[in-house]
Amino acid sequence: MLAEIIAIGREILTGKTLDTNSHWLAQQLYPRGFRVKRIVAVDDVVEEIAHEILSSIKYGVSLIVTTGGLGPTFDDKTLEAVAVATGRKLLLNENALKMVQERYREFYQKGWVDSPDITPERKKMAILPDGSIPLPNPVGAAPGVWLPLGSRVILSLPGVPKEMKAIFTEYAVKRIEEFREALPEARVSVERTINSGIGDESLIAQVVKEVMAQVPNVYIKSLPETFGKAVDIPVRFTAEGKSEQEAQKVLEQAIELFTKLLKERLDK
Amino acid sequence: MLAEIIAIGREILTGKTLDTNSHWLAQQLYPRGFRVKRIVAVDDVVEEIAHEILSSIKYGVSLIVTTGGLGPTFDDKTLEAVAVATGRKLLLNENALKMVQERYREFYQKGWVDSPDITPERKKMAILPDGSIPLPNPVGAAPGVWLPLGSRVILSLPGVPKEMKAIFTEYAVKRIEEFREALPEARVSVERTINSGIGDESLIAQVVKEVMAQVPNVYIKSLPETFGKAVDIPVRFTAEGKSEQEAQKVLEQAIELFTKLLKERLDK
Predict the structure, then answer these.
(1) CATH topology of B2-182 equal to that of B188-267?
(2) Domains in chain B: boundaries
(3) A37 contacts B72? CB cut-off 8 A
(4) Arch. (CATH architecture) of A2-182
(5) Nearest residue of A to residue B45, measured between CA atoms
(6) Which residue in A has a C-alpha nearest to residue B34's C-alpha?
(7) How do strand B63-67 and strand B152-157 relate by DSSP bridges?
(8) Record: contact B40-A39, CB cut-off 8 A
(9) What 3-state class would DSSP assign to B54?
(10) Average pLDDT over residues A184-195
C-alpha cells in the first residue's frame, strides 16, 4: 500500500530548515508495510499544497501524511489546502476547540501566554475539514487531524518535530495500524545488508541485475561511499512476501545466488 | 525565477537516508536569487522521475536540479527519465566517455577497481540526453549533466554528497550564475531575524498579518520552538527588491512597523 509525505513550509525550500520530519515519518511508515512513493516539500501556498494532495489522491495513494502548517499564524495553510483538495468544508470542530482551550488555559497558568482567551488565531487551529477527527497534541497547541476518506486517509501533523512525533506516536500509530489491517494487500518486508567484499560498483551492478531477474519480490541496492574509499561496498537486500516466513525465504535465496554469482565473476 | 530540486533514490523514501542533498542545494540556490518552489524525493522509477520533471516544466520552473541516479547500477535511471520528459534521445557523449575512461584508468592505477575497461555499466554513465553538456566529476565516476532547454535548464548531479557538492561548486555554479543573469526577472532578497521578546505566537501572528498587509514585498515568519520553551520567539523578515538597497529599505520599514505595533498591543 502506498503512502506519501508532504512537508509544508517555506523554511525548507529556502534551505533554513533541514526536513528531518519526512525522514522520521518514512522510518515509521516503511516497517509498518507502507511504500512511500514520494516525499514533497512545498511552500505555504494553499493552491500548491492542494495540488500535491490531489496528485497523491489521483495516483491512488492510501495514506497521505502532511507535516507543518497547522499553527495559528497567517502562513499555516495546510487545513485550508486539505479542504480544497478533498472538497470538504472547513468547520469549527468542538472537540478540537476543547483541546485548544485546555492547552491555552495550561499555558496561561504556567505564565507562557498573557491570556487564556481564544482569539481568532487560536480558534483557527480548531477549524478542520468536515469529517476530521482531531488528535490531541501532548506538547503544543495545534491538534493533529485524522481525515478518513473511504479507502484512504489524510493525516495532518504539526511541523515542530516534538509535537509531530508526540501526536504520531501517542495517537496516530494505532489508527494507522488499524487502517493498514483493513487494507486488502497487506505485505511484509524483511531486509539484510551484506558486505560484497569488493569496491567496484559496476561489477556488483551486473550481478544484482541477474539476481533480480531470477528471484522475484526482491530489491537489491549497493550502497557505495565515494569511489575508492569503500573497498568493500555493502549491498542491501529487501524481500517481500505475504508472511515474514515467506519474505525470509526469498531473502535467503537472493543472497545465496548473489554470493555465488559474484564469486564466479571474481574467479574468472 | 523558480527552481525545483528532485532527489532520486528509494533509500530516501524508506527512511534509510536523510536527504541532506536537497537542503544543501536549497542553501546554494536561494541566495543566488532562485525561489525553490518544491523539493521532491522520488523512487528509482523512470515514469515517476519523468512525471516530476514534466510537472516542473509545465509550471514554468527555470532551473530543475536533480540529484541521484547517475551511477552504473540498474536503478540509476535519472538520465533516462530526463530524456523521456524532454523528448530527447539518449546518445553516447564523447566528452562524457572521455571523463569516465579517465576516471577508471585512475581508479585502476590506484588499485580500486580490477580493470580499467569500459563495461556496459560504465559506458552507461556517458549516455546522455541529446544536447547535454557533461560536467567533470572531481571525486567519482559519473559526470554531472547540464541540459539547456531554451529558457530553462536541467542540471543532473550524482547522489553521493561529496560528488554532488564538488560538481556543483567547481563546475555548475558559474553556469547557474550566467543563466540567472540572462533571465529577465532578477531580484535580490535580504533578511534579518529579530527577537520578538514574547512567547505567544498567536499574538505575533496578529501583528505579522498587519505588517504584511501594509508593507509590500516583505515576508515575515515567526520561528517558534515548542510551546512554552521559547519565551522569546524569533521573527524572521525577508524583503525583496530590484536592488539590495531597495530590499534593505523595505526590510527596515517592516521591522520598524512590527516593533511599533507589537509594543502597542503589549501596552494595552
Answers:
(1) no
(2) 2-182, 188-267
(3) no
(4) 3-Layer(aba) Sandwich (3.40)
(5) A37
(6) A14
(7) parallel
(8) yes
(9) helix
(10) 77
Among 3.30.70.600, 1.10.10.10, 3.40.50.150, 3.40.50.2300, what is the CATH number of B188-267?
3.30.70.600
Minimal Cβ distance to B14: which of A30, A110, A160: A30
Kindly provide the ipTM of the predicted complex, given to two decimals: 0.75
For B113, the closest chain A residue by CA position comes to A200
* Among the partner residues A29, A163, A224, nearest to B160 by beta-carbon distance: A224
| Region A207-223 average pLDDT | 88
Q: What pLDDT is recorded for position A27?
A: 96
- pLDDT tens readout for residues B129-178: 999 999 999 999 999 999 999 889 999 999 999 999 999 999 999 999 99
Nearest CA in chain A to B115: A200
- In this complex, do A71 and B26 lie within 8 Å of one another by their Cβ atoms? no
Q: What whole-number distance in Å separates Cα of residue B127 and Cα of residue B97? A: 8
Q: CB distance B22–A41 less than 8 Å?
A: yes
Beta bridge partners of B194: B235
Q: Do A121 and B208 touch (CB under 8 A)?
A: no
With CB atoms and an 8 Å threshold, state whether B12 touches A39: yes
d(CA B144, nearest CA chain A) in Å: 15
Q: What interhelical angle do B201-214 and B244-267 show, nearest 10? A: 130
Residue B221: C-alpha distances to residues A71, A105, B259 (Å): 12, 25, 14
pLDDT at B225: 60
Sorted by sequence, the CB contacts under 8 Å of residue A190 that are 6+ apart come out as A238, A239, A244, A247, A248, A251
CB contact under 8 A, B107 and A227: yes
What is the pTM for the complete model shown?
A: 0.76
List residues bridging with A199 in a β-sheet.
none
